[in-house]
Amino acid sequence: MALFDDLGEDVPLLGVPRRVVSLVPSLTEAIAVSVPGVLAGATDYCTHPEGLAVPRVGGSKYPKLDRVFELRPDLVLANSEENRPEDVERLRANGFPVWVTEAPATVPHALASLRRLLTQAFEVTEPYWLVQAEQLWREIRPERVRAVVPVWRRPWVILGRDTFGGDVLRRLGVSIVYGEHGDRYPRPKLDELRSWFDRGDAELLVLPDEPYRFTADDGPEAFPGVRHVLVSGRYLTWYGPSLVAAHETLSAALSG
Which residue positions does the secretion signal occupy (predicted)? Predict the structure, then answer.
């Protein structure tokens, strides 16, 4: 069965996958919920669904490929932003089909990618959560606040243009100040970040708990006097079943 992934690469499946190794946390959750029983392995960072009991194969950036080989998957799931091209090529060179999803720039883009993966590779009917997520995230609310959104510190890394998290916030009425930057993840100095608030060009600091775990004691202190909100990194950056709960939870957090 010849299919093509998001990057246009051939995925030579012999049939509907029955043993899947996922190297992407959000894809792991989507597959576990939508096609129960097919996951044969996942990364250490695949934390959902809670209680997922499958063999672990290391991290997304540096998976233990020998462990993946031992699991004998008939499909490996990867992402163009989260996984290294050399790992994808090594998996393919060893005879394992790999479906690479493209890093989505918008919520509709992400959901369309998931629909194609689920309905074409796994031949399942589109799940209810996907339809519900599309309905919830269709609206784009008017801009009501401008925000700086770090995803890492030491050095500071910020959400920029064409990012899934940026589009999630945009649909909730929050624009990101680096939304027109040349880089998807700019690395400005702290003084530059503070200057947005000093000039009144930003009013809100949004701090997710992943990939960097910002907390009440780690992050806000770098921006004295700035209004901040701590949010779930999973709700901000994962695309999959979590998008359903994310809409209400993020809306409440950002309006509080």
Answer: none
